[in-house]
Design brief:
alpha/beta; five-stranded parallel beta sheet; 5 helices; 18% strand; 128 residues; Rossmann fold
Length: 128
C-alpha cells in the first residue's frame, strides 16, 4: 500500500494557507500551522515529506524555525519551499531552502514545486 506524502504549510494568513491547502490536498495529506510553534509541534508529531513556509521578516520566529529544521538530524533533509513577497531569496537559500517562490504564488506553481521536491517512496515488498 502506497502512503500519501505529507506536506506541512506554515502560513499565518488564513486565506493564503486555505488556498495552498486546497491546491495540494488532491495529491497530499496537508497539515497547516499558523506559526512557528505550531509547526514545530507538527514536525515533532508527524513524518513530513515537504514544508511550504512563509518566513516573514528576517529575525521573525519562522526564520528560527528554518534554522531548527535544517540543524535537526530528523528534519534537515525535508525539502523546504519558501513563499514570500519579501526579497529574502539569498538568505533563504543560504539557510537551506530547496525552492523559493515569490508571492503571489499561483496554486499550479506551488503544486509543481512540491511535486519536484518530493521523492516518491518505494512501495514495501517491491524492489526497483
Amino acid at each position: 500500500m502506497k502512503s500519501i506524502p505529507v506536506v506541512l504549510i506554515v502560513e499565518n494568513d488564513p486565506a493564503t494557507h486555505q488556498l495552498y491547502a486546497r491546491a495540494l490536498k488532491a495529491e497530499y495529506d496537508v497539515l497547516v500551522a499558523s506559526n512557528a510553534q505550531e509547526a514545530q509541534s507538527m514536525l515533532d508529531a508527524h513524518s513530513v515529506q515537504a514544508i511550504v513556509l512563509e518566513p516573514g521578516p528576517i529575525g521573525s520566529p519562522n526564520w528560527a524555525l528554518i534554522a531548527n529544521i535544517k540543524q535537526h538530524p530528523s528534519s534537515r533533509t525535508i525539502p523546504l519551499i519558501l513563499c514570500t513577497a519579501q526579497d529574502e531569496r539569498r538568505q533563504g537559500l543560504e539557510m537551506g531552502a530547496t525552492v523559493y517562490l515569490t508571492k503571489p504564488v499561483l496554486p499550479t506553481a506551488l503544486v509543481k514545486a512540491v511535486r519536484n521536491v518530493i521523492v516518491p517512496t518505494p512501495q514495501k515488498g517491491k524492489s526497483r
